Amino acid sequence: MQILRVAAASRPKSVAGAMAAILRDAQAVEIQAVGAGAVNQAVKAMAIARTFLAPHQLDLVAVPEFFEIPIDGETRTAIRFRVEPRPAMALE
Description:
Mean pLDDT: 93
CATH class: Alpha Beta
Radius of gyration: 14 Å
Order of helices and strands: EHEHEE
Number of domains: 1
């Protein structure tokens, strides 16, 4: 599974493009974010990725979880999103 690390300075549209490309290949992707700003950019990227996937009749599902990561000798709590593709639901 590919891992995309998102920072507060990450551009959501760029992250969304990378995420959509992986999901179009029917693969799951892991998004890692440390800090509120990074989580915000990751969530924006997921919303944008949905628009990139719609023409391919795909949607995504994201499962968030906490995990700990060592940064500069310290253990920090981060958010990890496991993002998987799924067929888009038809509108009725």
